[in-house]
Amino acid sequence: MSCVSDWQCWPEPPAHLSLLPGEVHIWCASLAVPSATVEQLVSVLEAGELQRAARFRYESERQRFIVARAILRLILSRYLGLSPLQLRLSTNPWGKPELPSFLAGTSPRVTFNLSHSETLALYAFTLEQAIGVDLEYLRPLPERELEQLAARYFSPGEYRTLCSLPPEERLTSFFRCWTRKEAYVKARGQGLSLPLDTFEVSLAPGMPAKLLASREEPDAPERWSLLAIEPAPSYIGALAVTGHIQHVAYLRWNDQQFSSFAT
Fold it and tell me: Which of 6, 33, 75, 165 is buried most deeply by CB count within 10 Å?
């Protein structure tokens, strides 16, 4: 396994965090932390986030949500030079988290996105550019269910490509396609108002991540960059960002960084 495919060997962040134009920082973190740490992290969250956490049916899901959002705040606080307790996140009309204008800083402003699945979370940060990230755990799917989902949500070209693959390649390729589509939708910040079958991404094994076509915006493939991320076995992720990615830095969150805030 290459280092890029093993988040636990990604470097720890430098003492001073900064972003350059065209640069993307991708962080990976484990959400499996002791319950005592989870309850400490509650103090970092806002009331709205705590209300969302309380709605989860299972305690494990509640704790993972709390940890994922607290880590986001702790990382953002380092980019912005603020205490995590000073951060106030807002959401756009479709629910995408973002920094309100008075916290986004002077131009260029920090933009970000996060995703978590099972016990891992991915975070992506850049300057000014719209950005989205998605992470999925490779859970088994019966062949019939996989084909039904692809027929419903994939573009005709994506569906044909998936069905043409050998059976042993289809599950990974399905999630490869799904995460690239989700990352693009999240970057666009329009939620379910952007149907998944109106654009097409690459999904075949060995093919670079790429937006291939868009019915609503024919020039979108020239304006967007996609990046495949596979931080651990059985996990597949993707990043979407406007413009050209000049540099990517992969960074690792560890539990010692929880000490960067005072409870």
Answer: 75
pTM of the full predicted structure? 0.94
Using CA atoms, how far residue 228 sits from 77, 119, 127, in Å, is 27, 19, 20
Q: Any bridge partners for residue 154, and if so which?
A: none
Tokens of 84: 């995590």
Say whether 146 sits in a helix, a strand or coil.
Answer: helix
Q: Angle at Cα 82 formed by Cα 253 and Cα 56, nearest 5°? A: 55
Model confidence over 220-243: pLDDT tens digits? 999 999 999 999 999 999 999 999
| Distance from C-alpha of 4 to C-alpha of 167, rounded to nearest angstrom | 27
Q: 10 with 120: CB under 8 angstroms?
A: no
Q: Which of 224, 230, 194 is nearest to 212 (CA)?
A: 224
Q: Which residues pair with 136 in a beta bridge?
A: 236
Kindly give the parts of the chain with pLDDT less than 50: 1-2, 262-263
Distance from C-alpha of 209 to C-alpha of 205, rounded to nearest angstrom: 10
